[in-house]
Write a structure and sequence with these properties.
Blueprint: E1 2-6, H1 10-22, E2 26-30, H2 33-40, E3 47-51, H3 59-68, E4 75-79, H4 84-93, E5 97-100, H5 105-117, E6 125-128, E7 131-134, E8 139-142, E9 145-148, H6 151-163, H7 170-178, H8 186-202, E10 207-212, E11 216-221
Parallel strand pairs: 1-2, 1-3, 3-4, 4-5
Antiparallel strand pairs: 6-7, 7-8, 8-9, 10-11
Helix pairs in contact: 2-3, 6-8, 7-8
Length: 225
Amino acid sequence: MKILIIEDEKLLADSIGELLKGKGFDVEMVYDGETGAQYAELGVYDLLILDVMMPKMNGYEVARQVRAKRLGTPILMLTARSGLEDRITGLNAGADYYLTKPFDTRELLACINALLRRQGAQVDEITFGNTSLDLASATLVCGTNSIRLSAKEFDIMRFLLQAGERNLSKEVILARVWGFDSDAVENHVEVYIGFLRKKLAGIGSNIRIEAIRRLGYHLEVRDDD
């Protein structure tokens, strides 16, 4: 499962990241609110860990922006501001839980596990149309048919499923799947999209990966004739 940490105290962000990676989570860190909001709005994370006082955009503003996009990603808000009004502001902004600094790592992990449990089946699989992606086995399932995906196919398919009908540009897919420092080019995305289209067709899925010039890809459910 993917967790995004948005925290301007780099040492704290990195220490939380190492803790969570040690627990088997896929973790990314960003160090200002504006960048954090851009990442969060991709809709590919299972949980956001969000500081309040940050440069460029504070945590309340990030949470409101994420919720304005109708993203239901759980938000765990971290802050040294422990007053009642601060907690109310955070919860009203869209946070699911408000943890004050300093905190015990055991409490942090308990909060994370509790928030992830609330996601129910969404943590284990993502469904669109008549097709599901089993996150544990990287398998696409349609009725009685199924097919395993390679690591890159899985990452791209998960990204597309979480975005649904929202367009994802090739640049965003490259950055999220191959990484910002990769030498991969847009043709790599096109090749893997081709692989996924064949696998979806092979299991009888009614999902179509649509390409929109200059905007990227999104999913649609094919109408049966």
